UniProtKB/TrEMBL annotation, chain A:
TM annotation in the entry: 102-123, 144-168, 188-209, 235-255, 267-290, 310-330, 350-368, 375-392, 407-432
Region of interest (Disordered), residue spans: 43-88
Record has Membrane as a keyword: yes
Organism: Mangrovimonas spongiae
Ranges annotated as biased composition (Basic and acidic residues): 44-88
Protein name, per record: Quinol:cytochrome C oxidoreductase
Annotated keywords: Membrane, Transmembrane, Transmembrane helix
TrEMBL record, chain B:
One Pfam family in the UniProt entry: ActD
Keyword Phosphoprotein: no
Taxonomic lineage of the native organism: Bacteria, Pseudomonadati, Bacteroidota, Flavobacteriia, Flavobacteriales
Keywords: Membrane, Transmembrane, Transmembrane helix
The species this protein was found in: Mangrovimonas spongiae
Protein name, per record: DUF3341 domain-containing protein
Signal peptide: none
Transmembrane annotation, as ranges: 54-77, 97-122
Matches recorded under InterPro entries: ActD (IPR021776)
Amino acid sequence: MYTFSNKLKTFSIALVIIGLLGVGYGFMTSHKSFEEVETMLAEEASHHGGGHAEETAHATTEMAHDSHGEEASSTDEAHHADAHKEHVEHVQHQISNRPWSALYVGAFFFFMIALGVLAFYAIQRASQAGWSPVLFRVMEGITAYVLPGGLIVLAIAIASGTIGHYNIFIWMDPDVVAHDKLIQGKAGWLNLPMFAVRGFIFIAGWSLYRHFARKFSLAQDNAEDDKNFKKSFRIAAAFLVFYIYSESIMSWDWIMSVDPHWFSTLFGWYVFASMFVSGITVIALITMYLKSKGLLEFVNDSHLHDLAKFMFAISIFWTYLWFSQFMLIWYSNIPEEVTYFITRINDYKLPFFGMLAMNFIFPLLVLMNSDYKRIPWFIVMAGIVILFGHYLDVFNMIMPATVGDRWFIGVPEIGAICLFAGLFMLVVFTAISKAPLLAKRNPFIKESENFHY
Amino acid sequence: MEASKVIHAIYTDDDVLMSAVKKVKAEKHHIEEVYTPFPVHGLDKAMGLEPTRIAIASFLYGCLGLAVAITMMNFIMIEDWPQNIGGKPSFSYIENMPAFVPIMFELTVFFAAHLMVITFYLRSRMWPFKNAENPDPRTTDDHFLMEIPVHGNEQELETLLQETGAVEINIVDKDTH
């Protein structure tokens, strides 16, 4: 049995409190008045000299063209005044979006870890893997975060459209929809009640599977026969079918719809790969933590090796999907699709390509050697880089649509990471401490304990 | 080298063979070769063979393939004749790189795979029309054979191998090449 040490508990509570302070600070400093933004922009223009001013001028003329193309009688001065007002309001909105998006990115990142682990767990059950049953209790512990995490993500999404001023999803704003033919066409899918209902159905499906899988797994410990094992096999297979549909739709709803003018067919798999590899990495990290405490004496370095192989392989799978999405859009260069990558490459150069180095090149080179995959500190190092890389991945999916070039990884972002990291640790380690760490009477447990690669 | 004698111990079970190998190693006899009809897990470890370095070779071949792909396409598409083909930017390699990635990937795999296989053939001396080096044809079907060089200790070796469960023990004059 694992007991949640007081030290770790205090640490996670401290993280939550620091995180809350950071998030609160983010929200308090994001309300800027029109005049404040105006002076800020003027200052920026004078600081950066010609380059930025040119950009602003370019933006204003473009906007003037957009909004007043038909009004031939308007004077030039009127154009400029209107365009200036629009520009300032645009930036003002972006600044007020930042704490919302930072919170949303953090919440989704930790939720996606738990959901990825749930999918991995179901695959291990359905494929009757012989190596992994000794890790089942670790995975079950991590998946405890699916329900609270999912509800938090959905709550932030809905709150941004009800309490907030449509800070994440622009299609929730009836004013925007009224002037946007494209969003109007999608309104049958993208409307708040439907969004909420779909979200609740998905969270209910995932948590129901998690609840019963855990229940059967614990019941198997004291059972006389393998009835519970068979049941968990069947529900795992059924869940995987549900999961691949719900995950795909969830990724359209919760992530892709921040850019309601853009669409991509392999987006669901791409998000899946991201959550799968982060989930496996967290399984490896928590397993190593518990093993370093001497609580998992039946886990040997072959189990670690297998997890590291999964981290390596799924990192490459993620890159394959990332590149497939990027290259197809880059190659055909259709304006309605390619804007997605143009904003990211123009305004997010470092996070956009940095994440590629962290999620692909680094694990590729570090985890290729078979011997290195058995060295704990090597896997910890690779795992931390992979996790940061996938945080950046979520960051790159949400932020360009909400804050544009007003991004920074500062107090609101780090605050959100601390908040949800603390919450995640509290939920996960509480769940792990509730059951023995070795699943007894699992038909594959003997094989798993003696697993050797 | 003059003609030398070797002892051939034949087994019919891979588990018996494994324990025999361990016993012979424990007695500090040199095992020249073991012939089996299929891979026996852990045999290389029991015999104390060095791990293979073919994966390292393959990695280097992959790097070579990547270098070939990059140099080739950089020369052809960017330096030699930078045409405008469908508006693709051919001003520098990096600008047009996404279009080259499929070829970079495939050539990396191609070089890594084929050169590794050829390395394997060379190192294990396998080629068409090569004479099979098989001391006993039964070892390709259902028998296992352990070969130990004899240095005037025939009697001792024979009793040792008898104890390990060999079904047949032959002392053979080995041809020198």
